[in-house]
Amino acid sequence: MNVDDVKALATAIREEVAKAITGQRDTVDLMLTALFAGGHILLEGPPGTAKTMTARCFAQALGVAYGRIQFTPDLMPGDIVGSNIYNFQSGQFTLTRGPIFCDLLLADEINRTPPKTQAALLEAMQEHAVTFDGTTHALSQNFMVVATQNPIEHQGVYPLPEAQLDRFLFKHRVSYPDLKEERAIIVHHGGGTASHDIAQYGIKAQTDRKTLEAALATVGDVTLVDDVVGYIAALVRRTRESPDLEVGASPRAGAMLARAARARAALDGRAYVIPDDVKALAIPALRHRVILSPAAQIDGRLVEQIVSDLVDQTEAPR
């Protein structure tokens, strides 16, 4: 498989998702980038912006094993990873696997559950494995989490810990549709027979586990020249030097941004990374890895604007 094949595969997945989802092109593009970079994505937006629906259609178009967890205040870690249940007939413990044992996990409304349960995802997201009762169980090598959350100002939410936020390759803010898209949504979904069953849209699987592994290997071979490596390092280091940021991005942020840039290049049919790949992904890759200084918060500064300014101030290779 080469980068042209990866681009064609991504185009086919987009077309399948578009059968059910109107608009949200930037959301699907970032989900594809996260997929081919081997990362996870957090979608944040108000209720009713098709976050969950987009994730479900995305999984359907991939054709991989799919799991879903609806996070609630009373959800327990065992509800996510599973548990060993004693079988009285055999006199032995039997492993009951939780929904996390899949290729693509939809963690719906992840900030509706307390930190203890949120932490159950930490090991899985980083190590692609879960441990309970002293035994480690491997997950799929291509395990991916697509998490959704409501904005923090909504009632009944628990902010994600910094350690868990850092596990996400991207944090994407899902926006409202424009007027044309909103009219299309009303026409398409406003009928009396509207259904949330995505089977009605005829979304067909465009890939499988073996094809995805080949695509990921192709992305890993995309060329990242020293000049672009230096550009990523300079940008990440600027976040630590900015007076507007109390906490800057970690070295892991730079490594993950490089992986994402490789994936974006492959999705564009290129076997090499250009500075524009880094610029396009800087905000979704860094917005959740930095913390505003108290002065910046008082001034009403936005993380997105600060990161955008840092991108403009960092000299890009030519």
UniProtKB/TrEMBL annotation:
Pfam families assigned to the protein according to its UniProt record, in alphabetical order: AAA_3, AAA_lid_2
Entries under Gene3D superfamilies matching the protein: Magnesium chelatase subunit I, C-Terminal domain (1.10.8.80), P-loop containing nucleotide triphosphate hydrolases (3.40.50.300)
GO molecular function annotations of the record: ATP binding; ATP hydrolysis activity
AAA+ ATPase domain location: 37-178
Keyword Nucleotide-binding attributed: yes
SUPFAM superfamilies: P-loop containing nucleoside triphosphate hydrolases
UniProt cross-references to PANTHER family, sorted A to Z: MAGNESIUM-CHELATASE SUBUNIT CHLD, MOXR FAMILY PROTEIN
Family affiliation: Belongs to the MoxR family.
Record's protein name: Magnesium chelatase
Record organism: Rhizobium loti (Mesorhizobium loti)
